[in-house]
Amino acid sequence: MTPGRSCPLHYRYAPEDLARNTPLATDCLYVAGGLYGNLPALDVILDLAARERCPAAIVFNGDFNWFNIDRPGLVEINRRVLAHIALRGNVETELAGDDSAAGCGCGYPDFVSDAEVERSNRIIGQLRDTARALPVLRRQLGALPMHATTRVGSTRVTIVHGDCESLAGWGLSQEALAADEQRGRVRQWFARAQVNIIASSHSCLPVMADFETTQGVCAVINNGAAGMPNFRATHCGVITRIATFPSPPAQPLYAMRIDDVYLEALPVHYDNDRWQREFLANWPAGSPAHAAYYRRITRGPDYSIDPAVRLTASRSDRARLTAVATRSA
Asked: What is the pLDDT of residues 259-268, one digit of tens each?
């Protein structure tokens, strides 16, 4: 198997493992996956949380490292992130180890090109070279959990970096959720994990989808990337907010409600000029990250809000759409 496409056995778990987690109780939860070393985005996320009317529990849902191959950037991102709840993504897992057999550990599906896989493997190699001088940090990253469960109001939420069976699984990607067969599998995950909401990231593009299940209406919300643009012609990251009250700090891009909780995709309007300067200092033209990501950083991906919002059960009394595409993208 090509490095970067395989999911090592130690990445795997069962949905029932998620049901056994002891839930953290909170009225306001932020899930920020895919920060990718973006310090300006981190500033915005912490500011949004500080403006909530009650303390927000922030879960940095893996891959908070990626572009920060400079030692000061690597140290600063992790110093600030690890002061909160953090899960390890494939990036942190691979930084903590020395076995390069999994490459970046992204578990890329077939629709991702070999060239993109190869570039990601080169990026993790350079990031690992920086991290080798920080053995304490590497041990901290390796000790982070792969998943967590919270209770927001009366609703159980599981947080996974990939999907409900693998740290690097793509079963909650916007591509996978377009298939009826996969949606059926996700319905089983809700029951087996004993949750009503699954929050994910890993696959880089956001999606919100609801499901009619034996437990009532359930939802998947994938925040895409907190530290990169997520929609065409935009310059903002996206995080997930799940709370017992609607967001006062930011107008959501789209949202829905299940029972007593609001699910919202919040924009992260970071200082894009600063971020581009910091990115280019590490990844100039000709580097693997520049080839793979600079167009997205400057122009956004070829993706819009409309296909990200997939609500088919929203007419139910238990789930109501509250805002869709409130910002154009």
From this structure: 889 999 999 9
